């Protein structure tokens, strides 16, 4: 059985011009220790999906669908149920988290506090901090430092340690390497991989940088305008992307495109506060046919390991 399954997740936000439908029926499953990426351009609904899984959407958000943990829908029980599972079962490293540590408190004390909030003693918090620092590759004495006394990479390790304080089974990592140089990026990705392997931690990596994905993940779901348009193993997605948008993403990623000519993706994603007709990628798709403008494609299985939402895939691509 899956550890965590997202089923038909829909999220809308009230906005002056009408409801912003940020997530449109997203579904995926994650087994213990599995690592999946959620990839796509800015604004396609990646962060909103993660916040919904944490029960941390802002007021005014409408959510439907299910988040099944061990087969039980944790969304259905409202905030009380989310509070039981947040941090202890599902934890998140937020976008820009390196700046999210409390600047006036020593790093170690922030982890002690997290353990205490969840019922542990101060002593247990200190022991856990030592354990976590070792786990994320930080020298124990760094626990006494303030966040500004750490390097960017050390801060991100501390943020990951904080997220792991209550031994979650699922870690949602939202752009965890943004603002880090390439070498440190690689180290953080390596750390997440080691943690996943040694702890059996399931990881969702949210990123717009497809080049990072094969370094960490087994599979990737490509999101466009609030929907998953392709879900495949990293090897298939990078080696032979099926959806035209996924192909453009691969071509637009220097490290993956190799010596291939780099192509940018012309046009912009559709507004999410307007009704969408047909395939949302159709206005930007060089291969679109008449049907694409009027009929929304469903996400269909191409084989047991890959699904894709495109009228052309499996026909003439
Ligand atoms: N609180 C909110 N109120 C209204 N609209 C919102 C709110 N939060 C997000 N949105 C909109 O929802 C859509 C999806 O945003 P989201 O942040 O999930 O995308 P993303 O793929 O994570 O992008 P990024 O990589 O830039 O974070 C965007 O159009 C965004 O403007």
From TrEMBL:
It is a peripheral membrane protein. GO terms for molecular function: ATP binding. Coiled coil: none annotated. The keyword Membrane applies. InterPro entries: AAA+_ATPase, ABC_Ni/Peptide_Import, ABC_transporter-like_ATP-bd, ABC_transporter-like_CS, Oligopep_ABC_C, P-loop_NTPase. SUPFAM superfamilies: P-loop containing nucleoside triphosphate hydrolases. It is found in: Cell membrane. Residues 4-250 form the ABC transporter domain. Gene3D superfamilies: P-loop containing nucleotide triphosphate hydrolases. Keywords: ATP-binding, Cell membrane, Membrane, Nucleotide-binding, Transport. SMART domains: AAA. NCBIfam families: oligo_HPY. Belongs to the ABC transporter superfamily. This is ABC transporter ATP-binding protein.
């Amino acid at each position: 059985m899956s550890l965590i399954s997202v089923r038909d997740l829909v999220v809308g936000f009230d906005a002056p011009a009408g409801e912003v439908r940020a997530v449109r029926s997203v579904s995926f499953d994650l087994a213990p220790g599995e690592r999946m990426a959620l990839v796509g351009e800015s604004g396609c609904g990646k962060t909103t999906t993660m916040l919904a899984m944490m029960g941390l959407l802002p007021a005014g958000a409408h959510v439907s669908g299910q988040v099944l943990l061990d087969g039980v829908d944790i969304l259905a029980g409202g905030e009380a149920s989310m509070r039981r599972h947040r941090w202890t079962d599902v934890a998140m490293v937020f976008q820009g988290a390196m700046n999210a540590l409390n600047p006036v408190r020593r790093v170690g004390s922030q982890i002690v506090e997290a353990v205490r909030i969840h019922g542990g003693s101060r002593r247990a918090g200190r022991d856990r901090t030592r354990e976590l620092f070792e786990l994320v590759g930080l020298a124990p004495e760094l626990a006494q430092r303030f966040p500004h006394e750490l390097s960017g990479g050390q801060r991100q390790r501390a943020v990951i340690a904080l997220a792991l304080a209550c031994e979650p089974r699922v870690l949602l990592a939202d752009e965890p390497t943004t603002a880090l140089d390439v070498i440190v990026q690689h180290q953080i990705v390596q750390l997440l991989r080691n943690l996943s392997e040694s702890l059996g931690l399931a990881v969702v990596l949210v990123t717009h940088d497809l080049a990072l994905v094969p370094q960490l993940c087994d599979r990737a779901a490509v999101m466009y305008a609030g929907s998953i348009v392709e879900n495949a193993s990293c090897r298939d997605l990078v080696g032979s992307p099926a959806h035209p948008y996924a192909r453009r993403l691969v071509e637009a990623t220097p490290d993956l495109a190799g010596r291939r000519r780099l192509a940018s993706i012309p046009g912009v994603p559709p507004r999410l506060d307007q009704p969408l007709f047909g395939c949302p990628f159709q206005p930007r798709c060089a291969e679109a046919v008449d049907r694409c403008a009027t009929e929304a494609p469903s996400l269909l299985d191409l084989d047991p390991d890959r699904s894709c939402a495109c009228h052309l895939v499996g026909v003439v691509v």
